[in-house]
Amino acid sequence: xxxxxxxxxxxxxxxxxxxxxxxxxxxxxxxxxxxxxxxxxxxxxxxxxxxxxxxxxxxxxxxxxxxxxxxxxxxxxxxxx
Length: 81
Ligand SMILES: [Zn+2]
Fold this sequence. Notes:
The chain is α+β, with helices and mostly antiparallel strands.
């Protein structure tokens, strides 16, 4: 067991479209990059489970995460006065 599952949910940039998204860092991704929901939906249509897990991690854990409301509001409040 690795500690990948325990890493915190962070704001990441989608490595596919560049949109901000939330997820956990996956060792096979560059630091700070993840996969957004819409790209996950799109890539899933043409790639299999093994590919998704190798490149992006576990769905719902590393990408496609449900972000707790509190974490979203903290992130948003940082940038605005
Ligand atoms: Zn994307």
